[in-house]
Amino acid sequence: MTFKEITDLIKMVNKFNLSEFKVKEGDFEMTIRSEIYSKVKSGDMTGMQPVISVPSPVAPLPVESKVSETPLETPPSPDEKADTSYVEIKSPMVGTFYRSSAPDKPAYIKVGDTIAATDVVCIIEAMKLFNEIEAEISGKIVKILVDDASPVEYEQPLFLVDPNG
Amino acid sequence: MGIGSFRIQLDKLTSTNEFAIKLLKKVALPDGTIIDTQHQTRGKGQLNARWIAEPHNNITSSIIIYPHFLPLDKIYYLNKAICVGVAWCIEEFVGRRVFIKWPNDVYVQNTKIAGLLIQNSIMGRSLQHSILGIGININQSTFPKSFSACSLKTILKENISRYEVMEKLLNYLQKVYNELCLHSFQQIDRWYHERLLGLNSDLLFQQLDTQKQFNGKIIMVDKLGKIHINVDGIVKIYVSKEIEFFL
Questions:
Q1: 2.40.50.100, 3.50.50.60, 3.30.1360.120, 3.30.40.10: which CATH number matches A84-162?
Q2: Would an 8 Å CB–CB cutoff place A134 in contact with chain B?
Q3: ipTM field
């Protein structure tokens, strides 16, 4: 089963309010259980719930999680007047700056890359909490201001971004 | 939505945390979603460290939450709270107090039974989501020699239902997460320090860069997760990369 098929199944379980969905294909096995499943099991709901119910008009998802659904290709905000000044992405916390998720993984971004606001640009590790930092601005990476694996301070500039890049 | 109310279970996964990160980029997952596997083949420990778990014998899961309510200067309370929740769960089975080994392990009898790996996503000044990777040894009975580890089975001398441990774990995590939502930081600190391994005892410490050893007493772990050690009447403060201690 491909990753795309897995995400499609999860979307389907959410969309149709399924209580439980199992799939077995060769030696691949996956079970998805929604909140309805636990309710049915604990007797919260009267009677048996059909496996497929009418899709609810409102997706039973927290608004926050929609963030992750935002398409990655956020269009760069068009500027009326040409602004050549660069913007900094700053560290939100004290910690250690890492350019990739693991030593054997490629860097999230490099100079010249075009980034969207939701793109992960680095990891700041603080006391074993691994924090993926999202760009918050879109544009082109002009300069990386900190070396990999070095300590950073709160508000320390990490990247220089050309918002019109 | 409660913790564990939405579950995705796969028979085999390389790492539940990595799978969670990948999923979150493609699909919206409800608050409290748990990704669970009976067989994690490349569990993620701290940075390069691996979490080694025998198939079917342990809990290797990741829980996705959206703690937007938590200011970034309180982000370390995620670690403290989840450590407390995991400790409560294990205490229920072993029938006595267990210990939290700074920064993110749970110990019974000076050996490791559980570990955490929390990965957050931050944009600007706010926490977007957190992936709580939790490993608990349940029925594993042998461990690599270099590991000082134990399981519920090695302690209780019997097989324990993985399902039962999971259900208790989710309940306790919900309980401690509710406290986090209420910003009960003092309460979480109290629970955490009651279980802090080595608190107020004489211990041998080693600075990781210089290999220099010294004696001291752990006084506390502060809100940023730094450890405060009393060394000959002087309080020294360290981050987790700088120091280790021996039991």
A1: 2.40.50.100
A2: yes
A3: 0.86
